[in-house]
Design a protein that fits this description.
Elements: H1 2-12, H2 17-26, H3 28-44, E1 54-57, H4 65-70, E2 75-79, H5 82-94, E3 101-105, E4 118-123, H6 133-146, E5 147-158, H7 163-167, H8 175-184, E6 187-195, H9 200-203, H10 208-220, E7 231-238
Parallel strand pairs: 1-2, 1-4, 2-3, 4-5
Antiparallel strand pairs: 5-7, 6-7
């Protein structure tokens, strides 16, 4: 059953990249939601790479890959679906960033990298897609394997104990359960921020001007009691053994 839930997630996102991008890039509501996610990314992601070796897991068509490249980072980016990576490769090459970005397929549960290889790993809107706590724990454990001691993981999860989580069964993990999963993988939370209001279902049902107002309010709340928000963004550091 566990393996089938993973297959279900892969099949759900194994659509054409064109269709995947259309809502986020052409629909004004989709653009609003995507820009809001990028605003969260910008306030957490490191400003400079330094000598860090960086990995992205679950790049899709590059919603967060491209902002990281714009910031001057060079890194390896991955996804399990080749159609997404083909579209991402075109975008990267159009911007002249081909030498800065290694693009390859990868399975978050079986990463073909060496132990303790990376200094910084980011994976956004990937872990929440797995609708069992055991899958989310397994993904965190595998990421920790390839993360160096002292290295950091930037990810998000959907908070089961939030108000929105109580209304939607697909929200799988509580903040306490994520903390426990990180602790089991020898990691400790160092940064937490959260989205309280913005989500695709809500924005699709509201006039656009109200959506924009909600986005402004939500940005102001990124740091307000984030462990109680519905979409929680975490930076965790791997501890020395």
């Amino acid at each position: 059953m566990k393996e089938q839930t993973r297959v279900n997630v892969q099949e759900r996102y194994n659509e054409t990249a064109e269709g995947y991008d259309r809502w986020r890039e052409e629909n004004p509501r989709g653009r609003l939601v995507s820009d809001h996610d990028i605003a969260m990314f910008d306030c957490i992601f490191p400003k400079e790479q330094g000598d860090m070796e960086v990995l992205e897991i679950g790049a899709g068509t590059g919603r967060f890959t491209l902002p990281a490249l714009e910031r001057g980072f060079s890194f390896t980016t991955t996804d399990i679906n080749q159609s997404m990576l083909d579209a991402l490769k075109l975008k990267v090459e159009e911007q002249g960033w081909g030498e800065k970005c290694i693009i390859q397929t990868a399975d978050i549960f079986n990463l073909e990298f060496e132990e303790s290889q990376f200094d910084y790993i980011f994976t956004l809107h990937v872990i929440p897609r797995f609708e069992s706590l055991s899958d989310q724990e397994s993904a965190i454990k595998e990421i920790s394997r390839v993360l160096k001691p002292g290295g950091r993981l930037f990810f998000n999860y959907s908070n089961k104990s939030s108000l929105w989580g109580l209304l939607r069964r697909k929200h799988t993990a509580t903040h306490a359960e994520i903390k426990a999963a990180l602790r089991e993988s020898n990691m400790k939370i160092v940064t937490v921020k959260g989205k309280w209001l913005m989500n695709r279902l809500l924005i699709n049902r509201l006039p656009l001007f109200l959506g924009r107002l909600i986005a402004c309010i939500d940005k102001a709340m990124f740091g307000f009691l984030p462990s109680f928000a519905w979409d929680v963004y975490v930076v965790a550091e791997k501890q020395e053994v």
